[in-house]
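Narrative summary of target 7.
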Amino acid sequence: MSPVSAPSRVFTLRPSDFNFLWEECRRCYWLQVARDWRRPRTPFPRVFSVLADLEAASFDGQRTEDMLPGVLPPGTFRHGEQDVLSAPIAIDGTDSAVVLKGRLDMMVAFDDGAWGVIDFKTSLPHEVSPLRYGRQLHAYAWCLERPAEGAFTRAPIGTLGLLCLEPREMKRGRQTPEIYGRFHPEWVPVERDDAAFAAFLAEGVGVLAGPEPPPAGPRCGHCDYRARTRATAW
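Modeled conformation, tokenized:
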């Protein structure tokens, strides 16, 4: 796959949708991307945004040797919460292209000149899927290496991974009512496989380019609600 100048159709894909929306319901994914018909949004608790900001601030500018000793090569954490955007990327075997658009959590500037892309997870390491979240990290890497004109870029991207911050302890301050938490960082590496990611994008475009949406996911409450509403004419 490579950048393309004049495809017949361009789909804008958000890496965050690869983890849940695509897996949960291809019909909802098709409606959102191909027809710009999004699911009703529920309020996103502000506390998660605060946690994300604190995670980025605690790592930004720190050395890998200090934060993850013996895990990553020497380097410095940089560029927390960075918007990324790819140029249109042709999908082999089709006349379509995709644009990848998202916001990465953190990068590492390694001393040897290479870069790493990291996604924070406040969870237990065994609860995260490197395969599913790896699609998101690959998308960020492609954005950085195949940027749109004027977009943020860093290359080469040699390392992908999830940084799980596992809650371990909470204590009250000795002379304050504040509660302090202790989190254990655990590195979950993601092997870079551009061929597999290209195949995933091709599968997605194959679904999106269809004239009609695919069947609903078996556990999609949104599609079930729409179907029940149509059936009862409410």
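The helical segments are 21-24, 26-35, 46-59, 64-67, 130-145, 194-208, 221-232.
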